[in-house]
Design brief:
The complex is a heterodimer of chains A (274) and B (722). Chain A is 17% helix and 44% strand. Chain A is built from four helices and twelve strands, in the order H-E-E-E-E-E-E-E-E-E-E-E-H-H-H-E. In chain A, strands 1-3-4-7-8-10-11-12 form an eight-stranded antiparallel β-barrel. In chain A, strands 2-5-6-9 form a four-stranded antiparallel beta sheet, with no helix packed on it. The two termini of chain A are 25 Å apart. Chain B has 722 residues and is α/β, with parallel strands linked by helices. In chain B, 54% of the residues lie in helices and 9% in strands. In chain B, the strands form two sheets. In chain B, strands 5, 6, 7, 8, 9, 10 and 11 form a seven-stranded mixed beta sheet that branches. Chain B has a four-stranded mixed beta sheet with strand order 1-2-4-3. In chain B, strand 10 and strand 11 form a beta hairpin. In chain B, helix 10 packs parallel to helix 12, helix 15 runs antiparallel to helix 17 and helix 17 packs antiparallel against helix 18. The N and C termini of chain B lie far apart (76 Å). Classes of the chains: A alpha+beta (274), B alpha/beta (722). Chains A and B meet through strand 10 of A and strand 11 and helix 27 of B.
Chain lengths: 274, 722
């Protein structure tokens, strides 16, 4: 966090050092809230065997996931803004009752080796993300920052944590306790996002911001590359080949993140401050 | 009783003072002061177009008229157009010309009270066009260009009678209704553009014939000469010619030493070729022959006994016409028609050779031609204004006496024009040493000659060409007895070649170089580059990116004119102006400007005619002055030459305490094709300090407008960071 604050402060200083920018009636800083809606895609289910007869239905029934964004925009030129955003979301990570293919040694072996998650506490399994993004908004020619159509390029550092009941795993065939022995459930990822949006000022005080965002997390890009047999430009391939429960859960995290970032509609209100 | 008597005495006294003043306000021998509006403004100027429109629409709603909707549109368009015209600054109020024209109109109305049942107001407009036009509301505008051309008062009376018929018969609204009906016809869609226009003109031609015939009927009832009336058609036919045809002699620019070669003097000028039976199918008016024929019979039948050319006064007419001619020269200058301005001044200077005003007209005309010719190579197209370059009309397209002046000025090179101009202006400045304009022009011409045309004192001969010829002869005579030495031959050849190469300008200043002041000022100004290319380019109205230092001006007091705001609706290739909404938005934009100026601590000096009162004649004159200045400034394009009205502007700068003027405007259409412009000009130098033009495809929103205005004014007020 310190590093992030340091980077933002440095950018703030560098971009402001020699700028003489009008902003909106002299106000160049705005802070506010935006809600990002991402449509629920059936991607997570694809690697899970959902046994609906076990305990009802698939956990995530909502059509949209929502992400809460706390945004600060700083106008650095007539057509460019520096944006820093803190994103927070909590979404269902897996179904109420999900079946995992796994073996004791952590390697995928056969159809019979199935583990089922039947939690007593955390149901369904949750994925909690805390992201921080830095980006730039580029307003269209003819517009004047912070009003008008813009395009935003964003670099997001996504920190995701799976919340589950470790005692909720059982062998499917005899319902014997399965010792999950889970390791690290927090993963970090990097997302590149591109937004097209529009802003207008209401009552000389509030900025109404709405638009559409498309993003891609590098973990998922990595998976796509591997699946397609392409050399991955991103780190290791541990998400794909390691089919231990731990690895599976982390892979699912990347999928959920991909799902949450792929397409977003957003609407927000920022307050012009100074 | 005493009060009543005193009142009567005052009125009679004022009348006695005003009558001679109104027609003969100034003597033309020494100088001429341009006309200004005086007194109080008529209600027409004070009432807003919106209020006027509402009142007229209420009156209309009382009638059971099937064309009510179309008439409402007409009333609205008409009122806003008239208001714009009245506030353009081109209309004179309570000036001697207007007073005289109204007196002539009164003569016509007196004998035709039915025509005068609707109050008629007549104004003179500062336009060189030979024209007069009327609006159904009872307003007639007569151009200065027409007054300058008239031969007698009867002609003016007939032209006014013609316009009165247009008003009496409500021709404007009839034409509007006719055109609307025409557009609604199914056959209209199938017509070509030209065909549509001709169909519209057919109706307007009928109206013109009616106004000609019935206008004559009005004149019949007066004591004006009918024969003289026919001359009005000559005025119209030859309206493209100057107000008099006086043979131009190049000696006007010459002196003992400056002799313009005969090759630059057009031997024979072309005859006047106009035909009065021209093709009028593409004109709103019938041709002159048809118009003449339409009234000829009636005129012949009229008894001339007891009829006169002048009913008001011949002296007053001639004085008025002279004033119009003086005024016209200035208007030509403002319109950048320099050759016509010089020619007009030339005609008048035959009568008034010592008139300072005329000397200044010629000086400014020549100066501007010099600048245009010198800067020609730098001229580029511009985004604002109409013309970046000044061109002298091809002399072959000019008829009659002025052709010689066109030929001369077109064929003189930049350096030659500079020399001729300097010679003329320097001598004028010597004659009127207290005149600042002539002095400034002289210095600029010195600088231009030395720095741009690269002619220094050494390039001019101190000896007259006749003296040099004598030298050649002497050399020949001295060497005659003996065989001519090669050195003598070389010397002779050098002198002859020199004379041929440099042409007449080499000897132009022989006389002036004997004047120490001339030599000193030349040397001084030679070191000052008035027409430096970089400086010139920096004056360009350009949207190119500037450096940050250029963008911030640190100006804290600015004159703001009424912003321009036009909201339009485009449907079926028709552009409909939303007048009321435009008015509201204009008021909003003014409010935003004030708010932003306040936030940025800019002293907001408002020159607005939006809420002008009858007593605000000074404000009206200031607006007129600024509008004239702006119109001329934009015609100059990239060249920020000295403005014709800069003396008046200097007074304005002093009075208002700032030399910067801001112009703002918005154009908004329902097709989301919007633009915002902002321009800051230096009234003193004509330099464009800041020019912005933003295009967007947004709705007409106030937040964007706030941002635009604040951004513009922030660049005006803040100082560049070092």
């Amino acid at each position: 966090m310190k590093k992030i604050i340091l980077i933002y402060s440095l950018l703030f200083f560098l971009t402001n050092a020699n700028a003489q920018v009008a902003g909106y009636m002299g106000k160049r800083f705005c802070a506010g809230y935006a809600n990002y809606f991402s449509p629920r895609l059936p991607l997570v289910s694809a690697i899970l065997e959902n046994n609906q007869s076990d305990k009802g239905s698939i956990g995530t029934e909502r059509f949209f996931n929502t992400t809460h964004n706390f945004i600060t925009d700083f106008i650095i030129s007539d057509r460019v803004s520096l944006c820093a955003t803190f994103q927070f979301s909590k979404m269902d990570h897996a179904a109420y009752s999900s079946t995992f293919y796994a073996s004791e040694d952590g390697t995928y072996q056969s159809h019979d080796n199935k583990i089922i998650y039947l939690p007593a506490k955390v149901s369904p399994m949750q994925l909690k993300t805390r992201n921080f993004s830095l980006g730039f908004k580029f307003f269209k020619n003819g517009s004047l920052n912070p009003i008008g159509r813009y395009r935003k390029i964003e670099f997001i550092l996504a920190t995701s944590q799976i919340q589950l009941d470790e005692d909720g795993f059982y062998w499917k065939d005899d319902h014997a306790k399965y010792d999950a022995n889970l390791q690290e459930l927090t993963s970090k990822s990097f997302v590149f996002a591109y937004t097209i949006g529009k802003q207008r000022v209401l009552g000389n005080a509030v900025v109404l911001d709405y638009g559409l965002r498309a993003g891609l997390n590098y973990g998922y890009a990595n998976m796509i590359c591997s699946a397609a047999g392409l050399p991955s430009p991103f780190s290791s391939n541990k998400y794909v080949y390691d089919s231990s429960l731990n690895a599976m859960l982390t892979s699912m995290t990347q999928l959920r993140l991909f799902e949450a970032q792929l397409i977003n509609f957003h609407i927000g209100f920022h307050f012009l401050s100074f | 009783m005493r009060n009543v008597l005193f009142g009567v005495f005052c009125k009679v006294g004022a009348l006695c003072l005003c009558i001679p003043y109104s027609v003969n306000a100034q003597s033309f021998e020494k100088n001429y002061t341009p006309l200004r509006s005086t007194g109080t403004l008529p209600e027409l100027f004070v009432k807003s177009a919106h209020v006027q429109t509402e009142e007229e629409i209420v009156k209309l709603s009382l009638d059971k008229d099937k064309d009510k909707e179309t008439k409402e549109k007409f009333i609205r368009a008409n009122n806003y157009f008239i208001k714009d015209l009245l506030m353009s600054g081109d209309v004179l109020v309570n000036d001697p010309l207007t007073a005289y024209v109204n007196k002539v109109a009164a003569e016509v109305i007196e004998q035709n009270p039915n025509v005068g049942s609707q109050p008629i107001q007549i104004f003179v407009t500062k336009s060189p066009e030979v024209n007069a036009y009327a609006f159904d509301k009872g307003i007639i505008f007569v151009n200065v260009g027409l007054l300058a051309q008239l031969e007698n008062e009867a002609q003016l009376a007939y032209i006014l009678a013609h316009e009165m018929i247009h008003i009496y018969k409500k021709h404007s609204v009839a034409e509007y209704l006719q055109n609307t009906q025409l557009k609604n016809q199914s056959s209209y869609e199938k017509m070509e553009g030209e065909e549509r226009q001709m169909e519209k003109y057919r109706f307007s031609k009928e109206q013109e014939f009616e106004a000609d015939i019935e206008g004559l009927a009005l004149i019949k009832k007066t004591k004006y000469s009918a024969k003289a009336v026919m001359g009005a058609f000559d005025v119209l036919q030859y309206s493209y010619l100057p107000f008099e045809l006086v043979d131009f002699k190049k000696s006007f620019f010459e002196d003992e030493y400056l002799k313009i070669p005969d090759t630059l003097n057009l031997k024979k000028v072309s005859a006047i070729k106009t035909n009065d039976d021209y093709d009028d199918s593409k004109s709103s008016h019938p041709n002159i022959r048809k118009r003449r024929l339409s009234i000829e019979k009636d005129v012949k039948e009229m008894n001339e006994a007891g009829r006169k050319k002048y009913l008001v006064s011949e002296g007053a007419f001639k004085s008025m016409r002279e004033m119009a001619r003086f005024e016209l020269c200035r208007i030509y200058l403002l319109k950048r028609d320099y050759v016509n301005a010089i020619y007009g001044a030339y005609i008048l200077s035959q009568k008034y050779p010592d008139n300072l005003y005329l000397k200044k007209i010629v000086a400014r005309g020549l100066y501007n031609i010099v600048v245009s010719k010198t800067n020609k190579e730098f001229s580029t197209s511009i985004k604002l204004g109409q013309s970046s370059n000044f061109f002298i009309d091809d002399y072959q397209r000019v008829e009659g006496a002025p052709q010689r002046l066109y030929y001369l000025l077109d064929n003189l090179s930049a350096a030659e024009t500079n020399v001729v101009a300097l010679s003329f202006v320097y001598k004028a400045a010597k004659q009127y040493p207290k005149d600042n304009t002539l002095s400034v022009l002289t210095d600029s011409l010195f600088s231009c000659l030395a720095n741009s045309n690269k002619l220094l004192l050494d390039n001019f001969s101190k000896q007259a060409s006749s003296e040099l010829k004598d030298t050649i002869k002497q050399v020949a005579i001295v060497e005659e007895p003996v065989e001519e030495s090669k050195y003598a031959i070389i010397k002779k050849q050098q002198i002859t070649a020199d004379m041929e190469e440099t042409g007449f300008i080499k000897f132009a200043f022989v006389g002036l170089m004997k004047d120490d002041e001339f030599v000193e000022r030349y040397k001084k100004m030679a070191g000052r580059s008035e027409f430096d290319k970089e400086e010139y380019l920096s004056r360009k109205i350009s949207s190119s990116k500037k450096t940050k230092e250029d963008e911030f001006l640190g100006i804290n007091k600015v004159i703001f004119m009424d912003p321009y705001y036009r909201k339009v609706k485009i449907s079926n290739d028709e552009v409909l102006i939303k007048y009321e909404e435009s008015d509201e938005r204009q008021a909003k934009l003014t409010e935003i400007q004030k708010k932003c100026a306040d936030l940025l601590k800019i002293d907001y000096v408002e020159i607005s005619t939006k809420n002008i009162s009858a007593s605000d004649i000074e404000l009206y004159n200031e607006t007129s002055l600024i509008n004239e200045w702006l119109a001329e400034r934009f015609k100059h394009g990239n060249n920020a030459e000295i403005m014709e009205c800069s003396e008046g502007i200097k007074e304005l700068i002093k009075k208002r305490g700032t030399k910067y003027i801001a112009l703002t405007g918005v154009y908004n259409s329902n097709k989301k094709n919007n633009s915002y412009f902002f321009m800051l000009l230096d009234l003193e130098s004509g330099k464009v300090m800041r020019s912005e033009n933003k295009q967007n495809r947004e709705k007409d929103r106030m937040d964007l407008l706030h941002a635009y205005v604040y951004n513009s004014l922030m660049h005006v007020s803040k100082k560049a960071k070092k």
